[in-house]
Design brief:
The chain is of the alpha/beta class. It has 12 helices and 11 strands. α1 links the parallel β1 and β2.
């Protein structure tokens, strides 16, 4: 996985390099202008950028690479306690954000969700991890958090079979799938609550290994269904867990502490998709994404 990391503080760049150099292919930039030059000539799987940068700030950097047609997912870092700045950048397509100071292990868990992985559907079937019930894209998985990319890629493959789907539809759907599927696996099947997750992160334990170990001993599954028509795509995700009360999850906008571990998945999903509904038990979520081309046509008319 290739990552472009942009920060004007030498110590933070060095720390990121030392922490991730053996796991990812890391390129460093000290300001927005340097980052823009690098991003314009090289292809990356993820860009991580501070907002406060010299020469060209993080927002200007993001605006310019998007204007060039660069759709690489990016994660933003800000030391500004006013979370409104981060929210504004989300409207430009950010996939996640962190407040300084942050723990590298917490950052690692977010990076892993965007690690490129080629989906091998045949292998998943042969291992009995996926069962196709009907031709309308219903699946049941015996989940592993480390295979989250495979599940998301498989769903996106289905979405792209629609003649109306385009690249502008894929990015927000991917972001929402990463968050909601991860929630179903972590909190639904594995039963890890937000306090336990934060404790594991702070101990530098391998969180993915911890969750997958629990899932491996559980009989619970995750079910999802994809339905598409000429208006958009509806995706339903349900887990066999005990559920939760979505209204009781803290809103990260109101409480940005602890790197927004608690409730951040729901927040990120709602920043990208307007129509997200949970059932009363909290173990099923349904979201609808209208096709970008139809929405654009309505706006132009």
């Amino acid at each position: 996985m290739k990552i472009l990391f942009v920060d004007d503080e030498d110590t933070i760049r060095e720390l990121f390099w030392e922490y991730f150099k053996n796991e990812f292919v890391v390129t460093l930039a000290a300001d927005g202008a340097e980052a823009l030059q690098i991003a314009s000539t090289e292809k990356f799987d993820l860009i991580i950028s501070d907002i406060s940068l010299p020469k060209l700030n993080g927002i200007q950097f993001i605006q310019k690479i998007r204007a060039e047609g660069n759709s690489t997912p990016f994660l933003i870092i800000t030391g500004d306690s006013d979370i409104q700045l981060a929210i504004d950048v989300f409207r430009m397509g950010a996939v996640d954000f962190f407040l300084k100071p942050f723990r590298m292990e917490s950052l690692r868990s977010r990076i892993k969700k965007f690690e490129n992985a080629e989906v091998d559907v045949a292998t998943l079937y042969s291992l009995g991890e996926i069962t196709q019930f009907t031709s309308d894209y219903k699946y049941t998985i015996k989940p592993q958090l480390k295979k989250l990319n495979n599940y998301v890629s498989m769903i996106i493959q289905h979405v792209l079979t629609s003649p109306i789907a385009c690249s502008e539809d894929v990015i927000p759907i991917k972001i929402v799938l990463y968050e909601l599927l991860a929630n179903a696996i972590e909190h639904g099947v594995a039963g890890v609550n937000y306090k336990e997750k934060q404790k594991i992160m702070e101990s530098n334990e391998d969180y993915f290994l911890h969750v997958d170990s629990i899932c491996g001993q559980s009989k619970s599954c995750v079910h999802f269904q994809v339905n598409m028509d000429d208006m958009g795509v509806t995706i339903v995700i349900r887990d066999d867990g005990e559920g939760f009360k979505p209204k009781e999850i803290p809103n990260p906008v109101d409480n940005p502490s602890a790197n927004l571990v608690s409730g951040r998945g729901i927040f990120l999903a709602k920043m990208n998709i307007d129509s997200i509904v949970y059932n009363d038990k909290g173990n099923e979520v349904r979201f609808f994404k209208p096709w970008h081309l139809l929405t654009k046509a309505v706006q132009e008319n």
